[in-house]
Amino acid sequence: MNSPDPFSLALSLIATRDPTLWSIVQLSLQVSLTAVLLASLIALPLGALIALFRFPGRGVVITLLNALMGLPPVVAGLIVYLSLSRAGPLGQFGLLFTPTAMVIAQTLLVLPIVAALTRQAIEDLWEEYREQLRSLGSGRIRAIPTLLWDARITLTTVVLAGFGRASAEVGAVLIVGGNIEGVTRVMTTAIALETSRGDLPLALALGLILLTLVAVINGTAYLLGQASSRHMQ
Amino acid sequence: MRFPRWLLRALPLFVVVGMGSTAQVAADTPFITLASTTSTEQSGLFRHLIPSFTERTGIQVRVVAVGTGQAFTIGRRGDADVLLVHHRKGEEALVANGFGTERREVMYNDFLLIGPGSDPADVSEAATITEALTRILESQAPFTSRGDDSGTHRRELELWEQAGLNPDGRWYRELGSGMGSTLNTAGAMNAYVLADRGTWLSFRNRQELEVLFEGDPLLFNPYGSIPLNPERFPWIKADLAWQWHEWITSTEGQELIGSHAIEGATLFFPSMER
Q1: Burial classification of residue A198, based on how many CB atoms lie within 10 Å of its CB (0-12 exposed, 13-18 middle, 19 or more buried)
Q2: Which residues make Cβ contacts (< 8 Å) with residue B99, sequence separation at least 6?
Q3: Which of A82, A78, A98, A99 is nearest to A90 (CA)?
Q4: Interval B74-102: pLDDT, tens
Q5: Structural domains in chain B (count)
Q6: What is the mean pLDDT of residues A157-164?
């Protein structure tokens, strides 16, 4: 049996614009980016709120969020599976084995990471700015957008960490998506499938393409961050 | 406040675009969800069958490939429309308990005892699968078991039991993985493993592994189609699923199953021909 070199295989897959590969890549990005966006919309303000306000049980909430950063994707997948299953509480929507289910599962995985890290970043910043913001007479709630904006470079990294989690995980999307060809097959589940078929060069080639994609997205975010900090000065 | 307005205004747009594009995939064409086994999916059978079915009926088939045990769970929760699995006892129980409407035999192949070419337990000399398993146990040669409640795993446990043997010890490794992953591991460990012919023929990473024993009637591996019961699960697409059930057991479906081959070797034999 001849085994082609994964690097040239990856290049030829990209060069021939393999339509199957393209749709898998597209779905991967759609699912993970939507999940990161949704998670960030909730988690950034949530993290800031927890940073700025004192309330009973705050320590527990912070510990819980920090712990959930380590939530195993398989467990998140299982929870979402049981909720979306026809026999589960949200069964009537028929969302199991759809991309929407995958977005929900990944949102669940990304949310604690973004919320916990935002909480830390904003708390540090608040210590620094407290007097200044107080003297301007703005309340804590009103300070949130300003703090989030000022922490944007750190928060970009935070969101990227969330994106890394989403794009790398296979356990959750496999369970709730079902790895259906053309419908819910994403890069990571395709890699797992090719590995189990014993087509290791193809699996590795797909892995290289995924790594490249993630690197490009991270690079873009980095450049944007650089540009915006220059703009500030 | 320095938070840019345009970004705030654009946010809902991102959400709508993001959600819309993922939801779009699900719309329009009628489809059924078929819960089936990793062995059938990995052998490429569905890629060979489904386009013809879709062309004839306009129905798309979404295959969720899992172990047979998990496929039964999906069936008992009503999360698919129809099953194609391989564990006759489990299939009959599913119908008897009212989760499925009926079971039809679709196709069959056989299980193979795979192992390293050096064959340390001399299973290729064995006359029956019972003798082959006895030789493995006695020589304590490494054996990798699926350990995932799949059809193949269930059959393997039945074979040990039938032989009156209790596989236990460091030589017996339960992996809890799919067929392909188990073959990957068996190859790396030079271990024996029970595999279905379909997965074996389409498997690319054989390393030192070879077919060492085959042909015992106990290794017969039939696959059954079971549409789920719409009386139990009212949301099931019973009509569409029934069309699939009929088609896969029709002459057209059966001939297509028989024509699926890899390098000239047939992977599944249509049950109609038996």
Answers
A1: buried
A2: B75, B76, B78, B228, B229, B232
A3: A82
A4: 999 999 999 999 999 999 999 999 999 99
A5: 2
A6: 94
DSSP bridge pairs for B113: B194, B213
Contact state of A99 with B22 under an 8 Å Cβ cutoff: yes
Q: What is the ipTM of this complex?
A: 0.82
Domain hosting residue B75, numbered range? 30-108+220-273
Amino acid at B56: R
Cβ distance B15 to A41 less than 8 Å, yes or no, reads yes
> Residues A84-105: pLDDT tens digits?
999 899 999 999 999 999 999 9
- CA A106/CA A89 separation, integer angstroms: 19
Q: Which residues contact B246 (CB under 8 A, 6 or more apart)?
A: none
pTM of structure: 0.86
Residue B245 DSSP SS3:
helix
Which residues in chain B have their CB less than 8 angstroms from residue A176's CB? none
For residue B142, is pLDDT > 80?
Answer: yes
Name the interface residues of B facing A (CB cutoff 8 Å): 1-3, 11, 14-15, 18-19, 21-23, 25-26, 33, 38, 42, 46-47, 62-66, 77-79, 177-181, 183-184, 202-206, 233, 235
The domains located in chain A, with CATH, are 19-232 (1.10.3720.10)
User: Is the domain of B98 the same as that of B123?
Assistant: no
Q: Which residue's entry shows tokens 């188990």?
A: B182
Reported as type and span, the H/E element at residue B204 is none
In this structure, the answer to whether residues B168 and B102 fall within a common structural domain is no
Dig out the tokens for B3 from the structure.
């938070």
Q: What 3-state DSSP class applies to B61?
A: strand
Position A232 scores a pLDDT of 59
List the alpha helices (DSSP H) in A16-72: 19-52, 58-68
Choice among A16-20, A228-232, B124-128 with the minimum mean pLDDT:
A228-232
* Nearest residue on chain B to A1, alpha-carbon basis: B204
Helices and strands (H, E) in chain B, number of each type: 11, 12
